[in-house]
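From the shared-data thread, chain only:
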Amino acid sequence: MSDPVFLHVDMDAFYASVEQRDHPEYSGKPVIVGAAPGHRGVVSACSYEARTFGVHSAMPISQAYRLCPHGVYLPVRMKRYQEVSSRIMTILAGFSPTVQQLSVDEAFLDISGTQRLFGQPIDVARSIKSTVKEQTGLAISVGIAPNRYLSKLASEVDKPDGLHQVAPGTEAEFVAGLSLRSLWGVGRKMLSTLNELGITSVLDLRDWSRTELGREVGHSAAEYLWSICRGIDPGLYGQGQSHSISGERTFERDTTDRDALDTTLAEIAESCVHRLIDEGGSSRTVTAKIRLSDFTTNTLRSTIDHDIATTTELLTTARELVYRKWDGRTPIRLIGCGLANVAPRTTAVQSDLFDPALERRRRVEEVVHRLASEGKPVTTARLIRPSRPADPEARPHRSGG
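Structure, as tokens:
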């Protein structure tokens, strides 16, 4: 049996990079994608140029504008990003039988045992990067490692346009060379707690036992920290089973901002429904996932009495699951949603075939997706975001002075 090899592909500053590619006049400028200045909302993504001013995703747009008033502020064009993402996922599928798409801008590839077909892992990664660049004009970062978690860390090492490999047997050594803040899942609050305990490096963290850590940070966080500081996959990203379609997003900073949570859920839901359409699948089971700042993780699900036909249906149910479970005060570090028990449409319960309203909603969603894939993005209705201004797709671009 061949050794496991995983790639993590991350589309660098994806939304902003697509905007810079589509609008060459924005190249080299700080681009902030999200709500318009003066409106309630958050930053969905920003270019590396904007990050130098301290702007980051999920930041209130008012704060971003204070930090970078001369930036180029653009509305989210989710249909466009999904179109480009779909092209990239198609490229990735040509290099691996198992592609686990986490969100519109990142995916894992399991390339274990594919050396005879595509060559060594480093060669596969280089081929993927060059193919994506040639076909889309975008740069991506790729991490290679014996497990998913380390491949994600590796993709961060040389960003943007990075490529880094963690060779088998060097997992612990690789992690030891990183700062604590570089470990995915260790946010500001956890970092502060560790520092107060005198833990300022990965090697310091390794000196603590599970039991000792558990007394200070709780059992779940202790298990997670004990694993990742040794290069052991904590199982954060699951196994990407084919019977489910889902996405999740880890915030750069833990948040209680409902705008950020709603926006992120809406983007993930739309991506999941359009992936369902591409697969020709059907599902009645909605899943939602939240990971709190203390690493407590809840995976929730709800089964409804008909096939999910639209983004709005998935988003509505996912939001209900999340807000029913969340206390509204504890910061959230990760949120996600998706569809479980996905089966081919041909196996759908026959009664659905005689529901004109369901079929009409499904056909509308399919038309929207088809037009987006042809480069003709449209929006059928505003996604459910209470107390929110009009759909940002309808806003004109706005550039700072």
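The chain has four domains: 6-14+80-172, 15-78, 186-228, 245-387.
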